[in-house]
Sequence to fold (269 residues):
Amino acid sequence: MTMTQAVEPLPGPTADAAVSVRDLTVTFDSDAGQVVALEQVTVDIPAGGLVTMLGPSGCGKSTLLRAIADLVEPSAGAITVLGKSTSEARQARDFGFVFQDATLLPWRSALDNVRLPLEVGGKASTVEAAGRPEDLLKLVGLTGRESALPHELSGGMRQRVAIARALICRPRVLLMDEPFGALDEITRDKLNEELLRIWQETGTTIIFVTHSIPEAAFLGQKVLVLAAHPGRVRELVTVELPHPRKLSMRDTVEFIEVTAHLRALLESC
Fold:
């Protein structure tokens, strides 16, 4: 059976969307005047899905992620997360955020870094409502490294701790802003496979920003391609490749067809 990628029209509001973005515009003031970072962005992220976001530098990928996380205020339009406003979703801890830098506290062990959100949020006594830090470190493949300090861990291991920390309150949506961008290719590939495993085991909705075309195609059920100046939706592409996905899939004709299509979209942005 031949598998190809399908280009979808922009979806309307759907009942099963974890995140709905409608006519979102974000502007910033600068010394040169007003800058339009995003313009009339409309897209739905399906519940339980893994959507990657791809686009040239300056197209607003990180801005869109931060707007969903209630870290950037929209200038126009609306965003809902699980049917709530972004502010309500943030207060309910409906989403977790993983940045490019793991941002671990250097004096705390891996286990204590994972536990930190429970302490900050006053939920240390209700760990059972979230997840045991030990279990989450096991989930990300760090059993036996619970007592290690950040400087004793590799870059890939630190990112695993950051993912475990983001999952500690069992967020229904996980936002990831180029979390593997600073890692070497071998480590990055390994974490790509690990992330797919974690996604399948937890059922968490994931929105993943990347500059890498192969990474976007390998991870994503859908790839949201943004154009720049101003940032806007170029296309939403469904990647019709089977799961579970293995790195060897990248050598197949079907995968190369997907990446070629994505590359053509970026070149036309």
Notes: Residues 1-13, 124-129 have pLDDT under 50 and may be disordered.
